[in-house]
Amino acid sequence: MNKLFLPKNFLWGGAVAANQLEGGWDQDNKGLSVADIMTAGANGKAREITDGIVKGKYYPNHEAIDFYHRYKEDIKLFAEMGFKCFRTSIAWTRIFPNGDEEQPNEAGLKFYDQLFDECHKYGIEPVITLSHFEMPYHLVKAYGGWRNRKLIDFFVRFAKTVFKRYKDKVSYWMTFNEIDNQTDYTNRFLMATNSGLILKNDQSDAESLMYQAAHYELVASALAVKLGHSINPNFQIGCMINMTPVYPASSKPADIFQAEKAMQRRYWFSDIHALGKYPENMEVFLKQNNFRPDITSEDRIVLKEGTVDYIGLSYYNSMTVQSKESNPGFHFIGPELTVDNPNVEKSDWGWPIDPLGLRYSLNWLADHYHKPLFIVENGLGAYDKVENSQQIHDPYRIAYLKAHIQAMIDAVQEDGVKVIGYTPWGCIDLVSAGTGQMSKRYGFIYVDKDDQGKGSLKRLKKDSFFWYQQVIQSNGSQL
Ligand code: P53
C-alpha cells in the first residue's frame, strides 16, 4: 500500500490563550476580563466567579506565568522545538479595555505587534483566537453579556481593529473558542467563559439565555469572517469547537439514538459556522420548546455569507451517554445522562483518554463539513515532578500525545481526512481554565510556580520537549 505523508507545510506548533499565560492583567491600560474575576479552584472543585475583584482572594490569571514580560524567552524555546506556528489569543481587554469604547488602546495593539514580530523572527506563524474565555467584564456588568444584541457590534469592532492592524502579520484566525461548551447550560464556569452569562442559583431560563447568546455569537462570527475576507482575501478564518464525540453506553437502540440527539445538541454550532444555517433538528427544537431566540431574516443572510474556511477543534476526550426511561423525548440533559466508560482509562482529573476517539472525530467532522480541519488543542493535564532540580520525566504525556498524533496520522493516511495542523494545548505550563490550578500541567516546558502563586517562574525543558522536537523534525514519522 502506498503511504501518504503529512504535507510538508503541515502546521506543527503549540497552543495557549492570553488570559491563561500573559499575566499583566492591569498593565498598559488593560481592562478587567471575566478571567480576572475567577479564583483558583482545585481538582474537583469549581472556581468561584466573584463580582469584580474581592480583596484577599487569589486570582491566578492576574500574573499567570508572566508571558507578558517573558514572551521573547518563551518564543525562543518554541523555536528550538521547531514550531511552525503558535496559537494564542488577543486579549480583547488589551485592545478595548471596557469593550464599548470607540477607539482602541494603542499600548495593547503594540504588545501584539511585538509578539507577532517575535514569532516571525523564527518563521513561526501566529494562529489567533479572537475570543478565548476573556471578554471584557464591563460588557457583562453593563450589558448582561452575550444575551444582548449590542455585543455583536462591540465584537465586530474589535475584530475589525485587529484584522486591519495585523493583516500582514497574521493569516490564521478563529472567532470563538469552544463555542459549544455552553451546551452544558447548567455549568456556571462554561456560561461565564463562553457568553459572559453569570447564572443565579435559580436561573430557570438558563437554557433559553444560552440559545440567544449563542445565536448572537454565531452572527458576530459570520460578520467577522465576511469582514476579514474583505480586509485580506488570504485570511484563513475558522471556527473553534470543543469536539467531544458522544458514544452510546450500549448497543440498545435507545442508547444509540440518545447519543445521536446529544451530538445534534452539541454540534449545531459548527453546522452553522460551516454550512451557514440552522440544522432542521434545531429549528424544530427551538420552536417546540418556546426558546424563541431573536433571529432576524438579516441574521440568516449573514450566517449564510460568513461561513468559515476551516474547522478548528480541541480534542481531549470522548463522552458516553445512556438513555433514561424518564426522558422519553431523548432530550440531552447534559451531565445527567453521562455515564462512565469502562473501556477507557482516565487522567488524574478524571478525563477519559481515548485516542481512537480523535480519529473518529476527524472522520465525523470531515463527513459533515467537507472542510479542512485544524487540531488546535489536544493534551494531557498531569502532575509533574522536578527531579535532581532540573529534570522532568513525563513519559505519560509523551504516551498520550504519541497515541493521539498516531490517530491523526491514521485519519489522514487511511481515511483521507484533510488536517492542516496540530497545536497541542498548553505547550508551556499555564493556568488551567477549568480549575485555575498551575499543578494541572500540559506543557513541554515546565514553569516553576505552584497553586498558591509561589515560585521563581523559571522555565525548564521536560523530556517531552526533546521528544516533540523530533516529532516535528521528522514531520510526524518518528513518534
Ligand atoms: P483545563 C472544558 C472541557 C474541555 C475543554 O482545560 C475545556 C474546558 C474548560 O476547562 O477547555 C479547553 O485547563 C480550553 C482551554 C483549557 C483546556 O481546554 O480545564 O480551550 O482554555 O485550558 C484544558 O484543563
Automatic annotation (TrEMBL):
CC terms in the record's Gene Ontology section: cytosol
Domain of life: Bacteria
InterPro entries for this protein: GH, GH_1_N_CS, Glyco_hydro_1, Glyco_hydro_1_AS
Active-site residue list: E377 (nucleophile)
GO biological process per UniProt: carbohydrate catabolic process
EC number: 3.2.1.86
Enzyme class: hydrolase
Keywords: Glycosidase, Hydrolase
Molecular function as annotated in GO: 6-phospho-beta-glucosidase activity
Family of the protein in this entry: Belongs to the glycosyl hydrolase 1 family.
Name recorded for this polypeptide: 6-phospho-beta-glucosidase
